[in-house]
Structures are given as C-alpha cells and as structure tokens.
C-alpha cells in the first residue's frame, strides 16, 4: 500500500491523524505500532514516514487535531462573548462523560512518563496551549472582563490543570451534582473578574 493516487498531502495527513487518534484511543500508546496506524489509514509504513517521523509525532499530532478543546471551540463560535462567560461554560462542560478521543491527552500524559520523545513533544504542545490561554486572558483583561491584577500565566496554568484533572477523574470515577459544580464554578470565575467599586455597581456612599 503506497500513497493513494490523486490524494494530496493535506488529505493524507488528515487520514493518518484520524487513524492515529482511533488506534491510540483503542490500544494506548504502548499497544500501538506505527504499522497499525498505517494499516488503519490504508497506507504503507514508508508512506506514513513521509509525513510523521515517529509514534510520538503521531500521538501529539492526533492530540493537536482531535483532542478535546472546548474553550477554543466556544471562542471560535462566540468571539464576542466575555472571557468569563466562556470559562464558565467550558468548566461546566469538562465534567461531562467523555468520548474516546478525550483520552488522547491521558495517553500522552502516561506515555510522557516513560518515553522522553513523547515528553518533549507534549511539553511543546502544552506550551502552545498555555500561550493561547495567556493571550485569551490578556484580551479579557484589556476589555475589562478580567481583573488586570491577575497573572495571565497563572490563570492559564489553572485552566490547563483543571482540564487535565477532569480528564483523569471523569464522572465514571467520581461524579458531582451539576448544580453544585456550576455554583462552585460561578464563584471561581467571579473571582477572576475586576473588583467593582460601590459607584460602579450603583451604590452611593
């Protein structure tokens, strides 16, 4: 099986990443061979290596394209919505039952503990996600939606940690009432908003 006749590079890359996401989700990193992914994509090993250099490259590539990114999806759909509202909606969605692709992040975290190549690639990917979050927080601060005294880097780290934690501990392991979870999130997100003075909230002193 070689490169499909007439298929362009982007299409082939998408096929490989789709196959990688499916195979890694089903078998885990250590249970997956490059040949398994090539076979699932209908390609030869040599054709696969024209696009990806290793299993680690495939895993992080699949995570980048098919991993769960609810906040980024919401920002794309509702660009004018406040950052605080987007964070609240994302937090509420994190604890819902996950599809198999959500566990790509878990596979990457586990593999990174035992494979230096995965750890290096995951570190770069995490830095990309953190950088995107930092920019989002700074935009919210510039628009007066988030407290300018907060560290964007710290908020980004908190968001990444919450996403990782809810991926590892889903409702199958430990569940919580939707209303109680939402009330907690409201308190957390409200604490990120600017402190308003009495005059700003209509209180005369």
Structural features, described:
- By secondary structure, this protein is mainly alpha-helical.
- It has ten helices and no strands.
- The protein has two domains: 9-54, Orthogonal Bundle (Arc Repressor Mutant, subunit A), CATH 1.10.10; 67-190, Tetracycline Repressor, domain 2 (Orthogonal Bundle), CATH 1.10.357.10.
- The radius of gyration is 20 Å and the shape is elongated.
- Residues 198-205 have low confidence and may be disordered.
Helix fraction, binned, reads 55-70%
Distance between the termini: 78 Å
Structural class: mainly alpha
CATH topology of the largest domain: Tetracycline Repressor, domain 2
**CATH level-1 class of the largest domain:** Mainly Alpha
User: What order do the helices and strands follow?
Assistant: HHHHHHHHHH
The share of residues in extended strands comes to under 5%
Give the radius of gyration. Answer: 20 Å
CATH homologous superfamily (4th level) name of the largest domain: Tetracycline Repressor, domain 2
| CATH architecture label name of the largest domain | Orthogonal Bundle
Based on Cα principal axes, name the global outline: elongated
Question: Low-confidence parts, pLDDT < 50 over ≥5 residues?
Answer: 198-205
Mean pLDDT: 90
Biggest sheet, open or closed, and with what strands and sense? none
Summarize the structure.
Keywords: DNA-binding, Transcription, Transcription regulation. The protein is mainly α.
List keywords for this structure.
disordered C terminus; Tetracycline Repressor, domain 2; single chain; 2 domains; Arc Repressor Mutant, subunit A; 205 residues; elongated; mainly alpha
